[in-house]
Amino acid sequence: MTKINNTVAIIGLGYVGLPLAVLAREKGWEVLGIDINEPKVELIQRGQVPFRDDDLAEALKKHPIQAGTDFSVVANAYIIIIAVPTPVTASNHPDLIPLTSAIANIKPYLKQGHTIVVESTVNPGVMDEVISPLLKDVPAVHLVHCPERINPGDAKWSVRNIPRVLGGYTKTGVNNAKHFYESVLEAPIKVMGSPTEAEAVKIMENTFRDINIAYINEMARSFAVLGIDITNVIAGAATKPFAFMPHYPGNGVGGHCISVDPYYMIERAKQVGFDHKFLKLARRINEDMPSYMVELLLKASQEAKLPVNQLKVGLLGLAYKKNVSDIRNSPALKTLALLKKQSITVQTFDPFIPKRSDAASLSEVLSNSNAIMLTCDHTKIVHSLTPQHLQAAGIKIVIDGRNVLNMPAIVRAGLVYYGIGKMPHPLSASVK
Question: Which spans in 227-330 are helix H?
């Protein structure tokens, strides 16, 4: 492999592309960041991250990148990485328009020897049937798929140290991509037999999680009826040193991977005549969890002798996971919509998303509520929800969508508590 230069162009400066861009700059690469969102680009040019990520914000200050909206700069790059979103439509069908648009935007500037890496998550067959044909009239470019792996808000696993897989159509392309990733990551790179295998890896790992979360959510709902605490059972099962991997129940699955990728596989299999019954069932179970949260609220209101028309709900957390500002496919938003549909008074608060919050502070939302629904376990929120604090604020009902609050202490304080598979029973008040 002959290295042309040390410049990488990264298309898409969101939760995937921007961390990779900053890391590449740190590792000595010249980085050309491209995004169609002008306000986002302007923020990055000023050294600001367009979403909440304190570590990335600090890294961007130390390792600034060039950011713009002009796709022609890819002509100057050695390698081009596409990290644009691949969402689903309202009917849960794959939406490849951002990806195909990115290809169309760079195509006029491609030159012989360019290596194009698609990081966007796609189902098996997209590289062969969609992306490759779009570039068939561009001579001597190398096409590779290296599905993104990133876990926003995770202090241990980041773009820096998560292993990656890649597959390409040419040996040169594979070697070029492998060289780039090995130069910036502190993790191994596994070369797959083809781009299709690389596509399948990403789909398999995310559908695996969705299925297991659905399984544990269903067990939680079953255990709730049986009076069994799901969190204690998981802790017990996890003592087995093999053949069990703990997953945890919650108020729903959000984000841009686990809640989306199964639909890509379901639709792709349908095209060739295969029906993914298991994947569809898992999706239905996880999609129903926000509705289950509302069911718990209504059950709790009866127990607390608080009529529904008198409920004043504080919905705490709008993001799809703790300590991030990402609201894509957030189950909290689905719960919010269901509450409003039933004309239940609700006020929201998320310290990471102040512009979407109704209240300016946790104290404000608590003072205006007689019930709370914890829909995202941000550390800043959870640490403040002590039984004493809740009792002093006049809270009567606690619906814990992440099973992180102190159930026994809350029950002892006289509040009605429901979690996901974690229900009070006669011994609750005495259990520590």
Answer: 230-237, 261-271, 277-287, 289-303
Tell me which of 258, 285, 312 is where a domain ends: 285
Model confidence, pTM: 0.90
DSSP-based three-state secondary structure for 169 = coil
412 vs 415: CA distance, rounded Å: 7
Same domain, 173 and 224: no
Contact between 397 and 306 under an 8 Å Cβ cutoff? The reply is yes
Six-digit token pair at 113?
């020897």
Q: List, for residues 368-417, the tens digit of each pLDDT value.
A: 999 999 999 999 999 999 999 999 999 999 999 999 999 999 999 999 99
CA 362 to the chain's CA centroid: 24
Query: What amino acid positions are annotated as catalytic residues?
Result: 257
CB 372 within 8 A of CB 397: yes
Domain that holds residue 309: 288-430
Give the pLDDT band of residue 152 (cuts 50, 70, 90).
Answer: confident
CA–CA dist 120, 202 (Å, integer): 10
